[in-house]
Amino acid sequence: MKRYLSADEAAELLGVNKATLYAYVSRNLIRSEETSVQSRKRRYLAEDVKKLKERKEYRRNPAQVARDALHWGTPLLDSALTLITDTALYYRGQNVLRLAQTSTLEQVAALLWTGDSSQWQSLFVHRPDATSVVKQLDSSLSMVQRVTLALTLTEDLAAFELQPEAVARSGARILALVALALTLTPMQVGENLAQHFVHAWKSDDPLLTRLVDAALILCADHELNVSSFTARVVASADANPYAVVIAGLAALSGFKHGGNTERVDALFREVGSLEHARRVVVERLRRGERIPGFGHSLYPNGDPRAAMLLNLLAEVYPNAPEVRFASDLAEQVSELIGHQPNNDYALVALAHAARLPQDASFALFALGRTVGWIGHAIEQYNGGTLIRPRARYTGEPPADE
Fold first, then answer.
1. How far is it, in rounded angstroms, from Cα 166 to Cα 163?
2. Among the listed residues 229, 219, 242, the one whose alpha carbon sits nearest the alpha carbon of residue 366
3. Long-range contacts of 19-24 (CB under 8 A, 24+ apart)
4. Cα–Cα distance, 170 to 124 (Å, whole number)
């Protein structure tokens, strides 16, 4: 749904006349604003109209709403972190595409956690002593196992303080540990997180740090996706931020979420060269398989994160065969199935273009999204409510009834 509706559109969606719509506005149930200084016409926030419509539907048919809950709709949780429109993404009102070009992940973390990006230096001044953690991590473990182990081994008693400022400081320490576990490399003095990844991947490409920072920022949050909702549920029980991140990571690893990057990577490797692209895609479609890395339910006209990252790749590596491969493959698949590449596809394209390790795309997703999980935890701790949906029982009736 677009961000704003006209009076006619809002009234039609609610099934009321304009007089009733204006009454809702006067009762502060729907926010509105002038379309321009010269015009007296107003536009109405689509999110408010949708919420009011759902409330009315719930009163009319609560059972139906309960059946539909948790499937890309109700229940809705209030959050000041991220706004998603049909064509754009915003962190605390700032366009994410602009942030990805002008900021570091640390600055975006401070923005999401505190509302002030300039706080990043005070948050990231102290890093945990990870010497003992490094010794117990094994390269044979999966990335998820390594991060979980690293976070479990750390005895960070300060993380049990759940006030916003304390959680933000804990978040900075957690990010350093996650980066260490993902790369099996301790952070060097003076490195930021993007520089650490580039150093750990032993790249001497001076342009790669900017690309990595952009990718991390684009992954930082995406409203109430499955891992962020999981993180909020865990935070609602007042579990500490380490537990919140472990829970978010577990959800992220699923193939319908961050684990989908592995499937996209498999597609790249199966295609191999562009002359095989159409055959591989058509064979997958004939087998009834989805083509991973394309389409997104929230972006009917294409994922803006993917578009930006792919454009940055083309600018930085204009002659790289891997970039041409990713661009041509996306074009062929889009012609066949009508969907544009999503963020998973762009992350894998980056990993191939920069010749990073095979699991680098998931590592970027995991570290970036950790920022969002901490932000959601801070909001949930502040709210103080327990997230506890009810179930509609569909099993055998009790024997004594």
1. 5
2. 219
3. 24/52
4. 10
Q: What is the mean pLDDT of the chain?
A: 90
pLDDT band at 271 (very low <50, low <70, confident <90, very high): very high
Q: For residue 34, what is the enclosing H or E element?
A: strand 32-34
> Residue 38 above 80 pLDDT?
no
Q: pLDDT tens digits for 355-373?
A: 999 899 999 999 999 999 9
Pairwise CA distance, residues 363 & 385, whole Å: 32
Please say whether the beta carbons of 38 and 77 come within 8 A. no
The domain limits of the chain are: 4-20+28-76
pLDDT (tens digit, 9 = 90+) per residue, 281-295?
999 999 999 999 999
**Contact status, residue 192 vs residue 105, Cβ threshold 8 Å:** yes
User: Which alpha helices (DSSP H) does 129-185 contain, by range?
Assistant: 131-136, 143-153, 164-183
Contact indicator for 43, 32 with CB cutoff of 8 Å: yes
DSSP string, 343-367: HHHHHHHHHHHTT--TTHHHHHHHH
Tell me the one-letter amino acid at 133. Answer: V
- CA pseudo-torsion sign 52, 54, 60, 63: negative
Give CA–CA dist 33/35, Å, rounded.
Answer: 6
**Catalytic sites, residue numbers:** 296, 344
Closest CA to 153 of 174, 126, 139: 174
What are the DSSP E strand ranges found in 46-138? 82-84, 89-91, 94-95
Please report which helix (H) or strand (E) contains residue 4, including its range.
Answer: strand 4-5
Whole-model pTM: value is: 0.83
